[in-house]
Amino acid sequence: MSGRRGRRSQATRDRLLAAALELLTERGPGFPVEALIRRAGVTKATLYYHFPSKEALIREALQREIQGMRRALRVPEAGSPEERLRRAVQGLADWAAERPQRLRLLALPWQPAPGLRAQTVRRLRRELIRLLTKVLLAGQAAKLLDPSWPTELLAVALYGALSHVVEHLRHQGRPLNPKELSEALLAFLLRRPLPAPASGSGSGSRSGPGAEARGQGGQSHSEKPQSPQT
Question: What's the whole-model pTM score?
Fold first, then answer.
């Protein structure tokens, strides 16, 4: 009997979290509690039985999304640094494409949010930065990314680029292709396209006049463009 009761309790908790995510996407964190309990089909007493406050509910809902990002970025240790970076970025793109609304949800910690205390916002921000920074530090250690770049700012820029690309495609009514998204993110990070995996037929290599225009694709980070002669 206790096991059945526990499953019902977990199902109710999951409904509350799902309703909170929907309302966060639609209305932001300022949504009224009454809208939440209507959406979840529960009473206010049930809400406060499972969560001590609305903020606690929002925090757990967002942390679930962050845990999903953590799983997406986890890659096996086997393979070259290039392969591991590619897999991590592809996992991030797949995670974003699965439910693009989650990007808007996780954008909440980056800005003032009614209903979330500053302490909660800082904690969520640190978790996001930590996840992305871990991937970027590995890229810098493998000399794939310029080690002189400030990693924390690069992590913020990476998440911002991901969010804006997805929003751009959404407003244009275009489908989100995870493969194209991951290649765009890699080019953004590396300032050049990453060579295609060895199993490919070579179609992934990009040469010609357009390659150099994309961030001086063939140059290393140590090379600097020469000043024009006068």
Answer: 0.72
